[in-house]
Amino acid sequence: MPRLMFPRDSADAKRLAKAVSKGVLKRIRQGIYTDADWADIPQLIDNKWYEIVIHLYPGAIVSHATAALLSPQHKVVHITANVKVRKKVPISDALTIEVHPGDTTQLTQPFMPALLRSTPARYLLENLQIAHSDVAAPRALGREWVETELCKLLERYGEAELNKIRDDAKQYSTSAKLVREFNQMDTLIGALLSTRPVEALATPTAIAIAKKEPFDQNRIALFDALASYLNQCELPIRGYTYNKANWRNQAFFESYFSNYIEGTEFEIEEAEQIVFEKMEIQHRHQDSHDVLSVFDVVHDYTEMSTVPDSADELLQLLKQRHALIMHARPDKRPGELKVKPNKAGDTLFVLPDHVEGTLAQAFERYQQLTPGITRAIFIQFIVAECHPFDDGNGRLARIMMNAELVCAEQYKIIVPTVHRDSYLNGLRQATRRGRFRTLTKVYADLQAYTGSIPWEDYGEARATLESHYADRLPDEGVAVFNKQISGFKIALPAG
């Protein structure tokens, strides 16, 4: 593996120089050698920059922007050393060390075995210093960056940590002549902890925290990416005209398949008894009520025509519909937001105290999208990602999706059992990789498929679904079903 080498003494320096003359080593600058190929030297320096700092400035500390980011920015690192004036030390085209004069003993912590860095209290002050904005890698990242960093520290360690940082910074700021910077930090921390006016804050995350409406920043970035992708798509509008029999039959299979996907498995004949004859399947009280409760919601045209006009209405609709579909499961706290984190596999959903703020932020994005299938896909994804309740989130997300379509007088999206794997794969790609084409294609295809079924006659609708293997497990029926949806040929952009 390529490495950097530094002479230990004059004899070692002669040995290294001789190796250079023989072409065994390369000299990067005086006192710095390597056995790497020329093409690999920039990456080696980027990875091992701290070894160069330790060699050139023993006793120095990593400070300012580099103490926070822990890597070069635009091929520059910042350190503080026992020097009298600030200077730039060019190492090669791959690295410049900016050396700042200052104390190297106070508010430091280990970074590497032989190298220290500024603690959070110190690097936050350092990053509030005035810096030239036209410099590619300024020493200070600025007030908004500090505000964001304080939010992360608060979320990770709590209010006690911010108070300790403030106490440490106050004591240090006088000797370091950073009183102006401390006053700014004190104002930001006070605003975050709601002891100072929120107007002191500038970033949406910090303002939300100060207002006790914290949100999941990573999820909001994911929602922004989804909204951007959906705005690039030209999705067909598949209009639906209400018909009593048609509507009832759709609602039955919507409930049947939505529950089956979540593990509430019945034969179609059993589900027919539950919904049409109001019979409870023996020894399956709660499962029977799950099927009937979802049917009752999705069969109610007024309910399914209702979409939110505000973030508060969105939250209220979610609670109301969750209470309706989960009323037979009191242990799942129907209509009450989760109080413990939940996850699926290795995906951790939005934390409980971030749910309301994340939904509020997401609603702003939802409002900017075109009503119909675009909003439907978006709202299904935000509910699935927030997972706001202990259980029933998948069924609720699909109800919210279809309400958007009913309100826009478009066909619903029914996800049959056979397409479960494709549906979940689309969600996984969106969640883990920020890739939305598969999910969008699944929904667009399934809306087209839903619109192709002869729903007016129940027997004919069921026979058609069964002939397409829609009720089969994916490994039993996907080949037959995919032949049906392949004919829709919906063009979508990459992404």
Would you kindly provide a written description of the structure presented here, covering whatever features stand out?
With about 500 residues, the protein is α+β, with helices and mostly antiparallel strands. It folds into two domains: about 110 residues, no CATH class; about 270 residues, Fic-like fold (Orthogonal Bundle). Helices cover about 55% and strands about 10% of the residues. The chain is built from 22 helices and eleven strands. The strands form three sheets. Strands 6-7-5-4-9-8 form a six-stranded mixed beta sheet. It has a three-stranded antiparallel beta sheet with strand order 1-3-2. The longest helix is centred in the middle third of the chain and has 18 residues. The radius of gyration is 30 Å and the shape is elongated. It starts with a strand and ends in a 10-residue tail after the last helix.
What is the secondary structure topology, with strand pairs?
Elements: E1 4-5, H1 10-21, E2 26-29, E3 32-34, H2 41-47, H3 49-56, E4 61-62, H4 64-69, E5 76-81, E6 87-92, E7 95-101, E8 108-112, E9 115-118, H5 120-126, H6 143-157, H7 159-175, H8 179-192, H9 204-210, H10 217-232, H11 244-261, H12 268-276, H13 285-299, H14 301-304, H15 311-325, E10 343-344, E11 347-348, H16 355-367, H17 373-386, H18 393-407, H19 420-433, H20 437-452, H21 458-467, H22 474-485
Parallel strand pairs: 4-9, 5-7
Antiparallel strand pairs: 1-3, 2-3, 4-5, 6-7, 8-9, 10-11
